[in-house]
Amino acid sequence: MRKPAGASLLMVAVLAFGLQMPVTSQTVSSRFMAFCSDGDGALSDWVNTRNEAYLAGRDHEVAAKQHRWEILVQQGETS
After folding, report:
1. Higher-pLDDT residue of 15, 47
2. Which of 17, 37, 43, 58 is the most buried (most CB within 10 A)?
3. Nearest to residue 47, comparing CAs of 77, 78, 74?
4. In the chain, which ranges are continuous DSSP H helix?
């Protein structure tokens, strides 16, 4: 008798918790920028793909051999 009651209580708890969970239609998007750490600053605008930023950084690396660069990531919510 205790097993069916325990299972029923568990089902009620799961349903109650599930109904309180908010549903959002927003997605998180990221933008990327190649940035020179050795004084040249931004190497690209904010772009939609990491690959675009990587290509700008790689081109800078070829032109300025000793410069270090990195890819900055900006995350935000869009609807």
Report:
1. 47
2. 43
3. 74
4. 2-20, 50-63
Which pTM was predicted?
A: 0.59
* Angle value at C-alpha 14, between 9 and 16, nearest 5 degrees: 95
**What is the chain's Cα-based Rg?**
25
pLDDT of residue 3: 60
Cα distances (angstroms) measured from residue 58 to each of 11, 32, 50, 51, 67:
55, 14, 12, 10, 11
Phi and psi angles of residue 76, each rounded to the nearest 5 degrees, phi first = -160, 175
DSSP annotation of 65 reads: T
